[in-house]
Structures are given as structure tokens and as C-alpha cells.
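stage 2 :: seqdesign
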């Protein structure tokens, strides 16, 4: 298998593999939950004889997930879900480990699309997707490559939105498990993972202080909650913008100012978008922003703040630091954008901490097994992660932390199941 991977893969440089192996070894040592899943897969071989294609941010933690799926008997192919988050040394290490890789850091847009397409040419039996990229490509351009797919698992809010839209129109061709909607995903990954890693990307890229600055968090879902919480902890004055009245009330009660974007735009020093929607920052907002305002996106696609509107108002654009573009507006103000508007925590940093992705990727691996075991009865639809799998991951996590918890007595169980006091 290793020889075939080297022959078939498209990567930058196989000579980078030693550095990649060190990165993978580091995260493996900090992912006890996924290690438990790997032991289980090695014994049971749930994917023996099957082909699995994975489309995720291709860095060390994702690489270890791929190796866990491979340990379950699968022939694994992997590609990147974002051109700026792919790490070439990790790609090389995976190829040496017998996994076929179609990914490079920062390819041209057409080459990036072709690399994703190449990952499907094996005609996989199962997929793991991020943002619905694989499913959308199969639906729109190459349905013949999806003829063998039994089902898959989706990582993100954005991907689930796209899958549900397909499902609503009767176009979804196989079952997909909504991993993002599992408790162990959004409560920890979205909140604590995005909260820490987004600021990691912003701080290491700008080398600026956050304390005393005004931070505008656009969207107060679980990712927005995490970004706002960490901004507050860093000493920032936090403003939240929302379109959902309930989330707006929640942000207010969490101690943040809430206002429309057109008002917040006048006040912000940092703007972080986490909505999964398009052009939540646009021309009218740029028109009133401070000189020196900094834009970052922690949503899946690079459309949350409008780059066309920003470009139209600019007389010049230049790179002033790695991953920072300066837009000099026609009135002399400067607005800075980090990582081309792509996911700041991966385009400008290393993504979520390993301990966070430990639970998320354990959910991915177990959900992939679940959909393979039950794809016939699930049907062509989007389903949630079964609660027992979600809880199993949490119990593995507690074990890894050395924490024990109480259990209900039989009397307590009977009481909870009864309508009588």
C-alpha cells in the first residue's frame, strides 16, 4: 500500500516527511480518546476492504485521524479542505505511512479543485467531509465518482447547512452523519477550540495587544461564544452583532454589548466573523471603520467579509506581514485582512488544540463506523450522532483525564422513569 501511495499521490515534496512524522507523533501523544478508538478499530477491522476519502484541514491532528481509519482496515485517500491550512510536511509523512494524498499548501484555485476531485477518483465507499466540499463536488460535477458511497460524516455547521439543503430538495444520494451537532463537538470544539485557536492565529500573526481594544464578534453561535469569551479574558471590550433575537439576548446577559454591524463598525479594532454566512461585513461597514481596523474570519468559507467591496474601495493592496494584507482605501484609511479571509485559526495558526480535536475526531471515526454499519436502514438523509456514541467519547475523555463521575442507583433510575413523586 505504501508503494502505491507514493506512486499515486500529488504532494509538494516527499523529503519533508521527517518533520511531518514529528508533528503527528506529538498530537498522537495528546489524543488519548482517539488512541482508544484506534485500539478498538485494530481489533475489529470495521473498514476492512473499504475505501475511505477524507476532506479536512490537512494538518497533524487530521493526519492522525486518517491513520486511525487506516488502522480499521481502510484504504485511505485524503485531501485538504482549505488551501492555506494544508501542511506539506504532514502530507509527506502520510504518504510514507501508506495513505494517498492529494494536497499542497496554497495551490492555485483550479489546481486546488482538481486535487479535491482526484481524491474521489478511487470511488470511495465512505467519506469524511468538511463544509460539504466533497458532497457538493459529487453533486455538481462528478456524480459518477460517488456510485459506491455508503455514507459519510460531516464536520462543520456550514457543511450541515448545505447537506440539509440538498436533503430538502431530495438530492442527497447517501446518508450523512451531522458530527458538528453532537454535544462533544459543539460544546467543546466550537466553543473552546475556536475560541482559543482563532485568537492564536490573530495574535501570532499581528503581534499586537488585545487588552483595551474593542473586539467585534459577528455571530453568537457556539464558535462566537468561544471567541467572545476568550476576547474578554484577554482584556478586550467586546461587542456582539447578531440576527437571531434569542442569541442576542444571550450575548447581552453574558455581559457583552449588542448592536447592529453598521454601529459596531465605527467602534471595532478587531472584527472576527463566525456566522457561516456571506458578506456579513460589507461596503457600508468599511465606509465607517477606523483607520487600522483588522478583519479575521473563523467561519468555513472566505466570504464572510466582502473582499470585492473592500477591493473596490482600495487604491492599493499589499502584503505587510505574512498572512496580513493591507488595503489602503481611497480616503487614506488602512484596513487589514488576515489570511485572505480564510479560517484564521488554520490559515494563520495550527488549528484547534490536540486535546480538543481528540474528541471531535473520535466522533468522526465512530460516526463513520456507525454509518457503515447502518447505512441501509438510515437511508438518504442527514442524521445526528447517536447519543450513546457521543457519551462514549465523553467517557473516554474522562478516563484520559483521570476523572471519575457518579452513576445513578436503581432507585434513582426508577424515580426518573416514574410520573409519581
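stage 2 :: out
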Amino acid at each position: 500500500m505504501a508503494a502505491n501511495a507514493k506512486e499515486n499521490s500529488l504532494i509538494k515534496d516527499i523529503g519533508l516527511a521527517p518533520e511531518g512524522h514529528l508533528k503527528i507523533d506529538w498530537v498522537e501523544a495528546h489524543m488519548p480518546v482517539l488512541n482508544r478508538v484506534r485500539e478498538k478499530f485494530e481489533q475489529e477491522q470495521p473498514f476492512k476492504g473499504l475505501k475511505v476519502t477524507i476532506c479536512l484541514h490537512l494538518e497533524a491532528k487530521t493526519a492522525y485521524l486518517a491513520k486511525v481509519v487506516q488502522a480499521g482496515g481502510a484504504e485511505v485517500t485524503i485531501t485538504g479542505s482549505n488551501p492555506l491550512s494544508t501542511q506539506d510536511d504532514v502530507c509527506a509523512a502520510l504518504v510514507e505511512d501508506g495513505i494517498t494524498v492529494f494536497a499542497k499548501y496554497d495551490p492555485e484555485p483550479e489546481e486546488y479543485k482538481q486535487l479535491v476531485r482526484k481524491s474521489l477518483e478511487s470511488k470511495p465507499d465512505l467519506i469524511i467531509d468538511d463544509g460539504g466540499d466533497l458532497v457538493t463536488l459529487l453533486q455538481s460535477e462528478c456524480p459518477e465518482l460517488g456510485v459506491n458511497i455508503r455514507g459519510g460524516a460531516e464536520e462543520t455547521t456550514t457543511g450541515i447547512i448545505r447537506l440539509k439543503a440538498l436533503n430538502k430538495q431530495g438530492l442527497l444520494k447517501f446518508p450523512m452523519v451531522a458530527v458538528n451537532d453532537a454535544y462533544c463537538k459543539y460544546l467543546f470544539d466550537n466553543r473552546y477550540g475556536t475560541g482559543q485557536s482563532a485568537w492564536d492565529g490573530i495574535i501570532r500573526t499581528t503581534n499586537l495587544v488585545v487588552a483595551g481594544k474593542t473586539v467585534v464578534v459577528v455571530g453568537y453561535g457556539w464558535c462566537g461564544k468561544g471567541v467572545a469569551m476568550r476576547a474578554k479574558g484577554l482584556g478586550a471590550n467586546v461587542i456582539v452583532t447578531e440576527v437571531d433575537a434569542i442569541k442576542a439576548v444571550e450575548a447581552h446577559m453574558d455581559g457583552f454589548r449588542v448592536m447592529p454591524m453598521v454601529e459596531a463598525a465605527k467602534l471595532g479594532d478587531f472584527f472576527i466573523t463566525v456566522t457561516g454566512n456571506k458578506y456579513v461585513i460589507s461596503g457600508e461597514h468599511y465606509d465607517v471603520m477606523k483607520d487600522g481596523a483588522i478583519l479575521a474570519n473563523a467561519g468555513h468559507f472566505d466570504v464572510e467579509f466582502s473582499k470585492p467591496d473592500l477591493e473596490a474601495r482600495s487604491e492599493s493592496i499589499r502584503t505587510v506581514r505574512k498572512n496580513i494584507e493591507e488595503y489602503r482605501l481611497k480616503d487614506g484609511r488602512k484596513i487589514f485582512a488576515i489570511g485572505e479571509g480564510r479560517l484564521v485559526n488554520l490559515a494563520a495558526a495550527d488549528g484547534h488544540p490536540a486535546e480538543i480535536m481528540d474528541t471531535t475526531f473520535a466522533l468522526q471515526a465512530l460516526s463513520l463506523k456507525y454509518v457503515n454499519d447502518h447505512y441501509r436502514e438510515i437511508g438518504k438523509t442527514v442524521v445526528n450522532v447517536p447519543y450513546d456514541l457521543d457519551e462514549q467519547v465523553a467517557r473516554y475523555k474522562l478516563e484520559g483525564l483521570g476523572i471519575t463521575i457518579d452513576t445513578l442507583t436503581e432507585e434513582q433510575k426508577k424515580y426518573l422513569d416514574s410520573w409519581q413523586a
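stage 3 :: structure notes
- The chain has 18 helices and 15 strands.
- The CA atoms of residues 103 and 228 lie 33 Å apart.
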